[in-house]
Amino acid sequence: MPTSDKIYASEQVLLPVISTWKTAGNKVVFTNGCFDIVHLGHLDYLEKARQLGHKLVVGLNTDDSIKRLKGSSRPIIPQIARARLLAALEFVDAVVLFGDDTPLQLIKTLLPDVLTKGNDYAIENIIGADVVLAKGGSVETIELVEGYSTSSIIEKILTVHQ
């Protein structure tokens, strides 16, 4: 399948796909993030997230939402390139762009079976946890690979080039 076929412009376009997966008995896992400079920490996290179910959906912040959240110098990589990189991973089944500051509306619409974030989050602080738990789903945290973050990579690049 071409990577572009795994990228969805909105939750409304992705919803029928998720319904088909669930009808077939697949457990749908959802996570989200900026994934600005994809690194080992991202790969490890996403691979572990997929192991929590049968299908992995990644909610990807749009460029505009990243600018609001992280400042005008971000993102480094434009959204279509970030989406294609994520979609190229065999353990990612769908990538859906969202422009809100949080994925709450996306989670309310898609109602995944499992919601996951890194273990730098407490479950009670994960956006959408209450929604997923109320529908009988689960919320899981995944241990992050130490020493890998987009911010630290950017800082290292800037330090080297000063």
List the helices and strands and how they pair.
Blueprint: E1 7-8, H1 11-23, E2 28-33, H2 40-50, E3 55-61, H3 63-70, H4 79-87, E4 94-98, H5 104-110, E5 114-118, H6 129-134, E6 138-142, H7 150-160
Parallel strand pairs: 1-4, 2-3, 2-5, 3-4, 5-6
Short description:
The protein is an alpha/beta fold and 162 residues long. It has helices at residues 11-23, 40-50, 63-70, 79-87, 104-110, 129-134, 150-160; strands at 7-8, 28-33, 55-61, 94-98, 114-118, 138-142.
The total strand number stands at: 6
Sum up the overall morphology in one term: globular
Number of helices: 7
Report helical residue fraction. 40-55%
> From N to C, what is the helix and strand string?
EHEHEHHEHEHEH
How would you describe this structure to a colleague?
With 162 residues, the protein is α/β, with parallel strands linked by helices. The protein has a single domain, classed as Rossmann fold (3-Layer(aba) Sandwich). Helices cover 40% and strands 19% of the residues. The protein has 7 helices and 6 strands. The chain has helices spanning 11-23, 40-50, 63-70, 79-87, 104-110, 129-134, 150-160; strands at residues 7-8, 28-33, 55-61, 94-98, 114-118, 138-142. The protein has a 6-stranded parallel β-sheet with strand order 1-4-3-2-5-6, sandwiched between helices. Helix 2 (40-50) links the parallel strand 2 and strand 3. It is globular and about 55 Å long. The termini are far apart.
